[in-house]
Amino acid sequence: MALGYVAVVLFAALGCLAPLAYGGHTGGDGEPLDWPRIALLAVLHLCLESLAQGRPTPCARLWRRLRGRPVADAPEPPAPRGSSFFPVLFAGVLMLPPTGAALVAVPGALVGHSAAPRTLRRVWNAAQLALAAYTASGVFRLAGGERLLLGARFPGAALAVLAAVLAFCLVNGVLVAAMRRLVGCPRTAERLLPPVLPALLHGVGGLMIAVLWHGPYGAFAAVIGLLPLTISAWTSAQGHREQSAHRATVQALVQAVEIKDAYTRGHSERVGRASVLIARQLGMGEQRIRTLHFAGTLHDVGKLAVATELLRRNGPLTDAERRAVEVHPVFGHELVRDLAFLGEARDGILHHHERLDGRGYPHGLAGERIPEFARIISVADAFDSMTSTRSYRRGRPVEEAVAELERCAGSQFDPVMVDALVAAVAEHGWQPEPAPPGGWDGEVPDIPLGVPEPARPLPAPGRALSRGGPT
């Protein structure tokens, strides 16, 4: 079905370029094609798309080949959503007939990065962008934008540009949403709205290029005017690449922990997700939420330094074994202390087993002395632990886990964080980890409803909870 859809879109895109089969001198509406302008815009669009996605531009690749240096063939990381750079493409929409505007979009899409299968994905990208550009150019001309642009009459030209950008977003959004639905991607409707705001900003950039191009200095002024946009695209790409590197580092550490402790596979990601739910309920800023997600995902990274036999023990631990497990927050902090991008996440990893009453570990902190990230992760960790089935006990229903958190609020957990999680779960729901096919090997006893309190106050590091309660 998806292949048939691609074929239909490709056929429609080829129809937009059909006038080229009849001499290639007009854009289908009688307007002559300015081939030098089309070529220059296509090259600029291709180069800026490469910069925006953090890839070497074709000129940079050619220069490396001329100097005898190898060009890396390793796949680049996927470009983040919203990293496409369209000011030059929109300039083509405003200055060229529909067929010419479609031609500007094709080289950047065909040469641009995409996931496997590369050829099919690139052809699809080129076809849907060509259709969007063709439609936007037609709308711009129907709105009289070309006549207004030549006289630089505003706001008439701006309104025509707005109509063209909205037409581009509509065609692009509908085509992409239909493809995502065909290949089974969730939440396809959200693809229609998010691109509009950045597209409007890119449309303003395209209008600036078109106005400069029609000025006394022509294409030279337009290219010089692109410099600020180029710097912005390159800076944005570097930020995206840095964030991708951070995510890859975190994911590698998480996978190492999950390989060692098979029964907690997926636990780290769920704790990170639950931590984000709490943070959003508290109104935390997006930058801190990203850092908190790292902290929640890496909270158990110190288990890499704990004996595998202890992590996989199907039964209670001795006091000595429990103390050996209790040092995992310290080991985790040592493992990540040099990862500067984690920031306050490192304290969250170190203190996520502290208790509000000071009877936790490793340092016996109490109340507000426990870092906010640690208080959030403590609740998220306990909640997922109680709702997940492990080798030594069954997971509880969400309702029972919530009741247990509320019972221990004020002694073990921060009541504010518990209330935030309860509200978030009520609003968004929670899907516990399913048991593996065939269930766990051996007997799986039920866990008691109560969270056992330590038998007596202990100095740091404090005594851990028994394996019957949240961990």
From TrEMBL:
Keywords: Membrane, Transmembrane, Transmembrane helix. The chain crosses the membrane at residues 85-111, 123-144, 156-180, 192-213, 219-237. Residues 430-471 are annotated as: Disordered. Pfam families: HD_5 (PF13487). Residues 461-471 have a biased composition (Low complexity). InterPro entries: Cyclic_di-GMP/3'3'-cGAMP_PDE (IPR052020), HD/PDEase_dom (IPR003607), HD_GYP_dom (IPR037522). This is HD-GYP domain-containing protein. CDD domains: HDc. The lineage of its organism: Bacteria, Bacillati, Actinomycetota, Actinomycetes, Kitasatosporales.
